[in-house]
Amino acid sequence: TNMKTGDTSRKRDEDLRMNSMKKLDQLSTTVLKNALRFTGKVQVVSPEKKNLADYADYEAPAEHQPGVLIASAHDSKYVACFDPLDGSGNADAAICTGTIFGIFENNQYNETDGLEQQTTTTATTTTSSLEQSALESVLQPGNSLKAAGYCLYSSATILVLSLGDGTHAFTLDPQLNEFVLTHTHMMIPQKGNVYSCNEANALGWTKPLQRYVNHLKEERYALRYVGSMVGDIHRTLLYGGIFMYPISTPHHPKGNLQLLYKCAPMGYLVQQAGGKCTTNGFENLLDVRPTHVHERSPCFIGSPDNIDELQSYLPPPL
To answer: Where does the record locate the signal sequence feature (predicted)?
Structure first.
């Protein structure tokens, strides 16, 4: 009886946590959506599940699909993807969270017709056309990004941004209520002595990867893992080292982090800061084109020397 009571209690606690995450994701999406609309320059597309039928994350629990937001510029020239609140599962513990975004040029944009041609149809058709166009146009590899960034919500609120010419950081001044440029042309250290991963999954890693992590321990590397990608990547960007979320069987056979709105923007920012990013030690993470919005991917992101050392432990792909 006690065991059954304990199981029921744990199930109830997990249900409450998932429900809290879902509500927080929804609230964050609404806040971001309203902020984008306020600019007057963005047509926001908030994909409901019916719109994402061909793009859904079939591996995620049904009760918690990620809170992704897709947006299109009013002239349809650019499309963007947002992870409104990365690390939402940590929020109750007051651990840092963040917003991640990536901006692409709309590969279906036609400067001659643009949006004007679409607006000659009914409003319903226009909205449907915009949603479909944005969903299809956002499925591009990370090397096609025109801009990417993240906003870290912690002891300070920091916006890290790249427009393709280096990575820069802005810190929110609460008195001015504006972001102030505090780090120009950030450069990740050539090598760091910190590794960041969920080592609870280690039994599901490949043997070569296990040997690599054991090597890091022998070399007295420090393990630092927040569980919020924004927090872990921000620390790696500043201090160097390697962040990794590899394939892990049986739970994460394709990796756990979403390629489009987590891995690719973060890899882009680190690469713009002189770092490297890869899916398997050999393939550049930014060369991979997602086939659906919530597609997951293994990722290794960090200092050049750390990624090169990782590669020396891993077998080349077949």
So the answer is: none
